[in-house]
Amino acid sequence: MITDWQGLLLRPDDSIRRAIEVIDRGAKRIALVVDDSGRLLGTVTDGDIRRGLLRHLGLDAAVVEVMNPQPRVLPQHYRREDALRLLGSAQVLQVPIVDEAGALVGLETLTDLLKRPRLENPVFLMAGGLGTRLRPLTDHCPKPMLPVGGKPMLEHILQDLIDYGFYRFYISVHYLREQVIQHFQDGSRWGVSIQYVHEDQPLGTAGALGLLPKDAVQRPVIVVNGDIMTRVNYEALLQDHDRHTPAATVCTRQYDFQVPYGVIEHDEQRITNIVEKPVHHFFVSAGIYVLAPQVVHHMTPQTRIDMPDLLKRQIDAGREVRMFPVHEYWLDIGRMSDFELAQRDVRQVIDRG
């Protein structure tokens, strides 16, 4: 049982935004909702929040809108074997401990019962782009190597994945590839393995996957663009993919667009309604994917293809492509203003709690 569970508490009228802060700061991937007497009302996990985002709930909505009101619990006096059995059967990583009256008295986590294993999934980092929109910064430096907080963007991505237990890395390189290879070398500096996939000519945002050794791809592959800064929960992402086993899982980010005019709704020439400056909600790709091995195995080497086209092929073939909403910090560094914002936000990226 962990001893610092009091920092994971929420009240039912706390906001989803507050829940995200508690989950992130507590580093246990859960928050516990209690009433004024300390009785457990429910739990909130990363998945609960993402399902709320899929319903377009705002971050200021009350946490009761997304919490699980009937979580699995352990009694106050439990055996380790019982905890392992419950955590395994329920496919959860945490379980609250309550007394006979239903009052919360603790929290047990699977990671505290079992040491986190190394993750065998290969990780493919896309670092071959030209970065034309960031010129002149990229005239003599590949975009993933641009420094944020004194380290290349790509190193922040690598370190975050290492912290989650990944250790088998492949990096696609093309433009000014020597700088990437010289900095990361074989990965031994970080205690991991790094191999390089050389694009002799640009192969699009997904074509380099066809150059991966087929025998290296026996498990789902994590694919990450080398020009994003994020705190996405890779463990939750991989668990979601493994639970549903789709052809691909796409990390998505909600994008809101407000029409700056009054929008006319009509039936031919008869106006039926006028909506002043409506906000439309969309989900956009966050540049992070999980691909099933067969998707990579069927790719043709040295063939140019972009990721949207690869995913549409799977959809057209009747295979499932899932979305995984990202509520954590995320920034796509495509413009100079994005790069400047990353410098200001760097503490949100490197502070892991």
Automatic annotation (TrEMBL):
The keyword Chaperone does not apply. Residues 1-59, 67-123 form the CBS domain. Keywords: CBS domain, Nucleotidyltransferase, Transferase. It is an enzyme of class 2 (transferase). Pfam families: CBS, NTP_transferase. It comes from the Bacteria. Its EC number is 2.7.7.9. GO terms for molecular function: UTP:glucose-1-phosphate uridylyltransferase activity. InterPro entries: CBS_dom, CBS_dom_sf, Mannose-1P_guanyltransferase, NTP_transferase_dom, Nucleotide-diphossugar_trans. SUPFAM superfamilies: CBS-domain pair, Nucleotide-diphospho-sugar transferases. SMART domains: CBS. This is UTP--glucose-1-phosphate uridylyltransferase. It comes from Tepidimonas thermarum. The lineage of its organism: Bacteria, Pseudomonadati, Pseudomonadota, Betaproteobacteria, Burkholderiales. The gene is cugP_1.
